[in-house]
Design brief:
With 216 residues, the protein is mainly beta. Helix content is 11%, strand content 62%. The protein is built from 3 helices and 13 strands. InterPro entries: ADC_dom_sf.
């Protein structure tokens, strides 16, 4: 499993504003946020992304298909805004290993996205959203670089600290507006996240080369 990796993704973005206590959050949320420095400002914007991904793994011709759900909270650090991942569920074991190298703490689980329905399971919670997509309306979804915390050591290298993804050759389609027909996201309650706005949905496809990470 050697970088760079090439990705082709189909993404459903679910954006909303939320209230949650960063001082006394739920244990799973506290575990993720503990890696942020004290001067990081935690915002109220939350983005849940459910993706179908086709990516290289061991060679340029070795493509693997996987599905992933990532929940991210917007933060500001040193006057720069990022999304900090607090939960990631993926259905492919190779993504667990690659995620660890990149600073994502991922759980293995069921993730499905097809047509106008997406769902995933996490800690005995079943989460789903069904939607109706448009063909010509554009949605304004806030997309930010990811900030992750890497911490691992091998006999040859030690990596520890906040990092951003090193991405090149990025292309994407416009973000098409979608309307939620039904949604059940009990994972939010489990994490102590309370939405205070309606969900804003958008679908887009993108492709890029992931070269690794860069320290912040």
């Amino acid at each position: 499993m050697i970088a760079p990796w090439k990705f082709q993704c189909e993404n459903l973005h679910i954006q909303f504003e939320a209230e949650f206590s960063s001082r006394v959050p739920k244990p799973a949320l506290a575990q993720a946020l503990q890696f942020l420095p004290n001067d990081a400002v935690i915002g109220n914007t939350v983005l849940l992304t459910i993706s179908r991904m086709r990516s290289t793994c061991f060679t340029e011709d070795d493509f693997i298909t996987s599905h992933e759900a990532i929940l991210k909270i917007a933060i500001t650090l040193n006057s720069v805004r990022y999304y900090f991942p607090v939960l990631a569920v993926v259905d492919a074991p190779h993504s667990i290993a690659r995620g660890a190298l990149l600073g994502y703490l991922k759980d293995i689980g069921t993730v499905e996205t097809k047509n106008n329905f997406s769902q995933f399971e996490w800690k005995n919670t079943k989460n789903f959203i069904s939607l109706k997509s448009t063909h010509d309306e554009i949605e304004d979804i806030l997309l930010l670089p990811h900030l992750t915390f890497r911490n691992y050591r091998t006999p040859d290298v030690e990596v520890k600290g906040l990092s951003t993804l090193d991405i090149s050759d990025y292309t994407c389609t416009p973000t098409l507006r979608c309307t939620s027909i039904a949604a059940e996201l009990p994972v939010l309650k489990t994490l102590g996240i309370s939405p205070i706005t309606t969900y804003k949905l958008g679908m887009l496809s993108d492709s890029f080369t992931l070269n690794g990470c860069t320290y912040v």
